Amino acid sequence: MKIAIIGAGNVGGTLGKGWAKHGHTVTFAVRDVNDPKLQSLLRDAPGAKAAPVAEAVAASEIVVLATPWDANEAALRGAGNLAGKVLLDCTNPLKADFSGLAVGYTTSGAEMVAGWAKGARVVKIFNTTGFPNMANPRYAEGPVVMFYCGDDAAAKADAAKLATDLGFEAKDAGELAIARLLEPYAMLWIHLAMKQGFGTGFAFKLMKR
Ligand SMILES: NC(=O)c1ccc[n+]([C@@H]2O[C@H](COP(=O)([O-])OP(=O)(O)OC[C@H]3O[C@@H](n4cnc5c(N)ncnc54)[C@H](OP(=O)(O)O)[C@@H]3O)[C@@H](O)[C@H]2O)c1
After folding, report:
1. Span 142-187, pLDDT tens digits
2. Domain-embedded: residue 47
């Protein structure tokens, strides 16, 4: 798949490296293509390139949003025409002190992203675990579960394939408004990692009888 990744930081960089190694066509959609940080990232992402945001988005079928919450609206405004694109929202609307969600619990960051990204087929995914688990979602007990939600079945199928390619167990959680559950669920991971001393080397697993 042709994938543009807006935000080449911890999450965007990790996902891009994984997909590039898996043969996808990855373009890091960045504000400054000469940023020295990109050099080592591109070295570790075979065949990937960097391009200005709107150019990268125009050339891709999948757009990954991996920017800080307060940059989302501006990043999407700079992305050009998103109509018909599959938009994977990996972001969490975190308060600055990580104490909770800046948007509360009666809406979700994903629904706000869908409002900004006119016509995009938004899927919430890759927000519920830390980026080290995106680099390696395989534990001795099995793969890390990756829940996703959205209103477009074909877009969700693309998202699930991209999660499976990385090694996750991808699970459909329902419509886009279920992001109101997936974002607080991400807060639990963050709370355990940062405040309960778990660190980043743990993950949630799905068990079924
Ligand atoms: N860290 C995690 O483990 C984790 C896990 C799940 C979800 N998330 C969520 O994923 C998102 C990214 O987190 P992160 O840890 O990857 O952050 P990060 O390492 O700080 O990376 C953020 C990236 O966004 C870019 N950016 C900022 N404003 C932009 C704009 N207006 N247009 C284009 N690019 C812009 C930055 O580029 P510059 O270098 O140019 O500033 C940087 O490359 C956040 O919403 C976070 O809540 C994080």
Report:
1. 999 999 999 999 999 999 999 999 999 999 999 999 999 999 999 9
2. yes
Q: Tell me how far the alpha carbon of residue 91 lies from the centroid of ligand 1, in angstroms.
A: 8
Torsions phi, psi for 68 (to 5 deg): -60, 150
Centre of ligand 1 from the C-alpha of residue 7, in Å: 5
Q: Is the CB of 7 under 6 A from ligand 1?
A: yes
The span from the CA of 113 to the CA of 205, in Å, is: 27
Q: Residue holding tokens 């150019």?
A: 55
Q: Look at residue 199 and tell me if it is in a domain.
A: no
Number of domains into which the chain is organized = 1
pTM (predicted TM-score):
0.98
- The whole-number pLDDT of residue 205 equals 87
Q: Is the CB of 128 under 6 A from ligand 1?
A: no
**Does 120 fall in a domain?**
yes
- C-alpha to C-alpha distance for 60 and 26, rounded to whole angstroms: 9
**CA–centroid distance, residue 22 to ligand 1 (Å):** 22
Residue type, 99: S
Q: Is 31 in the pocket of ligand 1 (CB under 6 A)?
A: yes
Q: What is the mean pLDDT of residues 36-63?
A: 97
Assign residue 174 the CATH number of its domain: 3.40.50.720
Instruction: Quick: pLDDT tens for 82-106.
Output: 999 999 999 999 999 888 999 999 9
Give domain status of residue 24, yes or no: yes
The finding on whether 71 has its CB within 6 A of some atom of ligand 1 is yes
